[in-house]
Amino acid sequence: MVTLTVDEHYCKGCGLCIVACPKEILQFARHLNEQGYHPVTCLDQEACTGCTLCYVTCPDGAITIVKDK
Ligand code: SF4
Ligand code: SF4
User: Fold this and answer.
1) In this predicted structure, what is the pLDDT of residue 19?
2) What is the CATH number of the domain that holds 53?
C-alpha cells in the first residue's frame, strides 16, 4: 500500500510531477492554494506504484510517499 501526499502549501503548480508520472495519475486540482496556484492531486491512489519519480522531480519537496509493508 502506497500513500502519496501533496502538501498544497508548498506546491507551485509547475506540473513537473504530472509529466514525470508514468501512471498518469497526477493532475491539477480545480481549487487554488493560498499562493494562488492549482495544486497537484492524485487521481487514483491505488494505481500509484510508489516509484518516487514524482517525489524526486518536485523542486519544492511538496510530495511525500509512504510505503506500508
Ligand atoms: S510514485 Fe510514481 S506512480 Fe505514484 S504518483 Fe508518483 S510518479 Fe506516479
Ligand atoms: S512538481 Fe511539486 S511543485 Fe510542481 S506541481 Fe508537482 S507537487 Fe507541485
Assistant:
1) 98
2) 3.30.70.20
